[in-house]
Design a protein that fits this description.
The protein is an alpha+beta fold. It has a single domain (about 1-209), classed as 3-Layer(aba) Sandwich (Glutaredoxin), CATH 3.40.30.10. It has helices spanning about 10-25, 55-65, 65-85, 100-110, 115-125, 135-145, 150-155, 160-175, 195-209, and strands spanning about 1-5, 35-40, 180-185, 190. The protein has a 4-stranded mixed sheet with strand order 2-1-3-4, sandwiched between helices. Strand 1 (about 1-5), helix 1 and strand 2 form a beta-alpha-beta unit. The N and C termini lie close together (about 10 Å). The model has no long low-confidence stretch (mean pLDDT about 95).
Length: about 210
């Protein structure tokens, strides 16, 4: 069975959804037969990377809300992440365009390292306060999961995998995806959002029939 996951590296619910889905896989008797395919999506493709703006201010700006309200929203998400075993540090998160991070994920997928790339990128963004649009940072992340440094550099200095990222985004639009994470099970069933482990497990079992 193929499970396709549309996701954005800067989406806090995508990281939570990933871990809840993995918890479901750990309980699924036929997990060995599951192929997970990560698909690119950009919540804000026009975003300009700006390390001087913290994520609280960014959220306040795009939502048109007060800074205190944005901080409260992020605190609620932080608590939600904790329940999934994750540590979020929004105070140090760097607002960054995720396009090149998605390209790195596509490169990693060619070597069966797509899931490892997604985990490393999410952790870098939400936990470690790293700039996931910075080339040197992406080289370190890629090398950390076993990719060749020179191949990563070549990818970043060309337009390699750019069309793959755009294709994923177009495909999401064609499927009617309006938000991420978005999980598609064998093109038969879909789950939108960071649902509970139980929902993912039930969908896996239903899709297997």
């Amino acid at each position: 069975m193929k499970v396709e996951i549309w996701s954005d590296v800067m989406c806090p619910f995508c990281y939570i959804g990933k871990h809840r889905f993995e918890e479901a896989l750990a309980q699924f008797n036929s997990a060995d037969g599951i192929e997970v395919i990560w698909k690119s999506y950009q919540l804000n493709p026009d975003l300009k990377t700006d390390p001087t703006i913290n994520i609280h201010q960014y959220l306040a700006n795009i939502k048109g809300i007060d800074l205190d309200d944005a901080k409260q929203m992020n605190q609620q998400v932080t608590e939600m992440a904790e329940s999934a075993g994750l540590t979020y540090d929004f105070d140090h998160a760097i607002v960054a365009n995720s396009f090149d991070a998605h390209r790195l994920s596509h490169l990693a997928a060619q070597y069966g390292l797509g899931n490892a790339a997604e985990e490393a990128l999410f952790k870098a963004y939400f936990t470690e306060g790293k700039n996931i649009a910075d080339k040197e940072t992406l080289i370190v992340i890629g090398a950390g999961i076993g990719l060749d440094t020179e191949e990563i550099k070549h990818m970043l200095n060309t337009d390699a995998f750019a069309e793959d990222v755009k294709h994923d985004i177009t495909e999401a639009q064609q499927l009617g995806v309006r938000g991420v994470p978005f999980f598609v099970f064998d093109r038969k069933f879909a789950v939108s959002g960071a649902q509970s482990t139980e929902v993912f497990l039930q969908t896996l079992e239903k899709a297997l029939i």
